[in-house]
Specification:
mainly alpha, Farnesyl Diphosphate Synthase, 23 helices
Length: 595
């Protein structure tokens, strides 16, 4: 039949491509497609002349009854399609696995390298150079090593180029995110190739191959070919991601980055001297990511769908808020906590100074932070994207911290609980959560290519405040037991009195039925506020609407879990309701698909 090779695609290559596209559809951005199609073009035009040479010199052959007929430079149309579909499959799998990863944390330079990394890169370069030299020898010698030599002589220069420029970045990436998109498609294509060779869809001519088989009729050369091509695809994706990461991470070097950077801009970023990298910023991003992983897995997952530089600024903002909160929470006395609040206020006074030197120099801020804050807090303060943020919500956040001061003094725990009634509850939620919601929204406005009217922005800010209340109510409902262990009760005192309880009763037994009833009452308020503000999100710019909805829905899912566990007396780990990872992924996928 003239359609044997075409049927291989219909049965074995097109289905996984469709499946990956379906799974990735809610997550795919124009930038992802831009990366993938750029690599497809590179793969197509770099493989075409090599494949044509193999066919013209009789290394590869195709039985006339296995192909439809159309050719380009002697290469059958089905083979040309294979260049495209393999690159697409592997690049899509790479994109899927790397979505959660904030690549900025893996940038490095010569001054930030361990001896191990240097050796790995050097050994890799030496190995590829040695393989290339061996391939030249095999091709010159001819005979049974010809095909193996041609594979290596074609693949090694591309691999050496990407490894030399992106090797340190590649090595630092999580092994799973790099190895999986190489290994899985390779093994799958080995199976497909074994089936195709067994049917005679294509063949390697005797006298040009070693005659060794991995299994069945799968020639070792074919096995190496698929391993090499998938490695090149992943290396190419890593190289593109490294260029994009440089663009997004260093705004001082690249202040304006289009949504789809031109190839020339990517090359410029890739060739930026690593000595010019702001490694203090990179280290701060690493610390921020670690905080995010520990403190808010829901937000960390949701952050993966935000575009480049916006995601970095959101992570840095969250890190500042967490570090500031920890400085107060970890204080041993009320006076110590108040001292930290005063220092944070002085920091904001400096950053937002109205004098002629606004914004103040980086060195001025750095010196102030070094003199007044511990090492663990410094990068979060120095990297706060203050120039993109209004000062008001940040000062108001400090007022929210002050409401927590009464909990810190052990002697006052029995008679000082600031959340007296619903008004105090709303005020607290506004100060510690609605402010953060507004700050996140301000970053969205700054980074979005779609400019909104002032009226639309005002409506969205109000909605962000309301949604902030909802999220904080969910947070309080989730942490009743954890807060009780710290001597804290955020349920309104007048609610407790109506149930015949005092705050100390909650501290002594946070799992009693009456407290569970108040938890559900608080969740009802949370979902009420959520419903009031949810519809306003439809007016957000399209490029950030989905990610913001995911961030909110991922957190509200905690509230849904708390509702589901009513009547279940099983205690959760550390007293917190958690959303299983697969459920969080499903929530993200579902709401992104809806957008």
């Amino acid at each position: 039949m003239a359609f044997d090779y075409a049927l291989v695609h219909v049965k074995y290559t097109i289905p996984p491509a469709i499946l990956l596209t379906f799974v990735l559809k809610p997550l795919l951005t124009k930038l992802d497609l831009y990366k993938s199609f750029t690599l497809i073009l590179v793969a197509f035009f770099s493989t075409l002349p090599w494949d044509s040479y193999l066919i013209r010199h009789g290394v590869w052959t195709y039985p006339p009854d296995a192909i439809a007929g159309p050719r380009l430079l002697g290469v059958p149309a089905e083979e040309l399609f294979f260049f495209v579909i393999q690159t697409y499959i592997t690049s899509m799998l790479y994109i899927l696995l790397n979505k959660p990863i904030l690549h900025a944390q893996f940038l490095t330079n010569q001054h930030n390298l361990s001896p191990t990394l240097r050796w790995i890169r050097t050994i890799g370069q030496a190995f590829l150079i040695g393989c290339f030299a061996a391939s030249v020898s095999l091709v010159r010698k001819g005979g049974e090593g010809t095909y193996l030599g041609l594979i290596l002589i074609w693949a090694c220069p591309f691999a050496l180029l990407t490894w030399s420029f992106s090797g340190y970045f590649l090595i630092r990436l999580p092994l799973f995110c790099v190895a999986t998109p190489i290994i899985v498609p390779t093994v799958y294509l080995w199976v497909v190739d074994e089936f195709a060779l067994g049917r005679g869809t294509w063949a390697i001519e005797p006298g040009t191959k070693l005659g060794w088989c991995v299994w069945g009729s799968l020639e070792i050369e074919e096995a190496l070919f698929f391993l090499a091509t998938n490695t090149l695809i992943v290396f190419g994706m890593v190289a593109i991601d490294r260029g994009l990461t440089v663009l997004y991470t260093f705004p001082n070097s690249f202040p304006v980055v289009p949504k789809l950077p031109s190839p020339s801009l990517l090359v410029k970023a890739a060739f930026l001297d690593p000595k010019r990298y702001d490694m203090a910023r990179v280290k701060g991003i690493r610390e921020s990511v670690n905080i995010l992983k520990r403190k808010s897995r829901s937000f960390y997952l949701a952050s993966s769908v935000f575009p480049g530089s916006l995601r970095i600024d959101l992570v840095l903002l969250y890190s500042f808020c967490r570090v500031a909160d920890d400085l107060i929470d970890n204080s041993h006395t009320e006076s110590e906590a108040l001292a930290w609040i005063k220092k944070l206020a002085s920091y904001l006074d400096l950053v937002y100074s109205p004098d002629s030197q606004y914004p103040p120099s980086t060195s001025t801020i750095r010196d102030f932070v070094r003199e007044n804050f511990p090492d663990t807090a410094r990068s979060a303060l120095q990297l706060l994207p203050a120039k993109l943020l209004p000062s008001g919500p940040l000062y108001e956040l400090l007022e929210g911290f002050k409401m927590d001061l009464s909990y810190i003094d052990p002697k006052a725990r029995d008679n000082r609980f600031p959340i007296k009634d619903e008004a105090a509850l709303k005020l607290y939620a506004h100060r510690v959560a609605a402010t953060v919601g507004e700050l996140c929204l301000r970053l969205v406005f700054c980074h979005s290519a779609t400019k909104l009217s002032s009226d639309t922005e005002s409506v969205l800010v109000v909605a962000a405040h309301t949604m902030g209340h909802a999220l904080q109510y969910v947070n309080i409902a989730r942490d009743i037991q954890v807060d009780a262990e710290m001597g804290r009760v955020y349920l309104p005192t007048n609610w407790l009195k109506k149930e015949g309880l005092m705050p100390q009763d909650v501290i002594n037994n946070p799992n009693q039925p009456k407290v569970e009833g108040l938890r559900q009452r608080l969740l009802d308020r949370a979902f009420g506020e959520y419903e009031l503000s949810r519809s306003a999100m439809s007016t957000l710019p399209k490029e950030v609407r989905g990610p913001l909805i995911v961030a909110i829905e991922s957190y509200m899912e905690i509230g849904r879990v708390l509702r589901e566990r009513v009547g279940n007396t099983r205690r959760m780990r550390k007293g917190r309701a958690t959303v299983p990872r697969l459920r969080r992924i499903w929530v993200a996928w579902k709401y992104l698909l809806a957008e």
